[in-house]
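Page 47, continued from p. 46.
Same chain as before, 391 aa.
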Amino acid sequence: MTPEEIAQRMDGRLADRDGGAAAFLPSPMVQNHAAFLARLADGTLACAWFGGSLEGKSDIAIHACLLDEGATAWGPAARLSHLDDRSEQNPVIFVAPDGRTWLFNTAQPAGNQDESRVWQRELVRDGDRLAARDPRETGLPPGTFIRGPLTLRDDGAWMLPLFLCNPRPGERWTGAHDTAAMGVSRDEGASWTVEPVPGSLGSVHMTPVPLGDNRLAALYRRRQADAVHRSHSDDGGRTWSAPAPTDIPNNNSSICAAALPDGRVAMVCNPISAATSTARRASLYDELGETDDRPDAQGGCQPVWGVERAPLTLAISDDGGRTFPHRLIVEDGPGTCLSNDSLDGRNQELSYPALLPRADGGIDIAFTYHRRAIKHVRLSADTVARIGVNT
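Result:
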């Protein structure tokens, strides 16, 4: 589809598709990226993302819309953040045990992820949409980014997965020094400590998955575009092993994982790596046209940018996320991502998925469609149950 054809479908209406239903979420923005799904205390499905003209521009802000249980269409999009001098990205919604809903997101000047700050605001429902109360900085160190869901530790502490850009004085961020960490708050978000994941150079977008008996796995995007990596914790998330590769390739693009009611681990990703692709681009923000005379950061790992972001695949593991033998293509296409522009038709990525299991055994998935839209796909319980039966 062309960008214009995609825009014509962005009405939020669920339409039947093989294995479930699908919709393009409504948005007034020409670029929409980095979906996050959460279920609110009243059962409503919420989807948040960032939108504007181009990732890294100061008009990029957080938007969200709602799908009431049983509804056939998403409600209107609402803008939830309003910093005029920073690109506001990567929303994470957390419903606390007391029922209050919180939005966390990053905010950075232009493409300088090493200057990113993490902000927090309470969300409330206002009729058919969400509204945000006054924001505040979390106090996490500069260069902190987020993407994965916030979870609760067994002692009630909040655990927010982080990746640290680890600023290098006088050098420009390239992703070469990014590492993973867990942000821990023992006072419901009022203050945070940062607990690094050992051996995690290049492992970002940490996504924890509970395995039972106080054990967790975490799955990671890789800057090196080699394979999805996994670490584990046997003490409820207090300590983590060093990330190690799984059998799923990774293209240096986001993944999302969750535990299914039957105990399996589900992950949505693009199973393609730099080893099987020659597509490359200079960096994530090479189109911004911003003047930055600093040299690129030296050392660290070697990030790879530009590997195709397709197909979008649901993969299921029977062994706690070590291997993913059962796979279903959710959406397919060229996956071209050598440009972030959402209006010239060059970008055809299917990326940055969010994944949320349903009580009925189905799965809700939201993802970036050609940088022009956020697409929602609902897989039925029968479709999910069949994955693995014939593979």
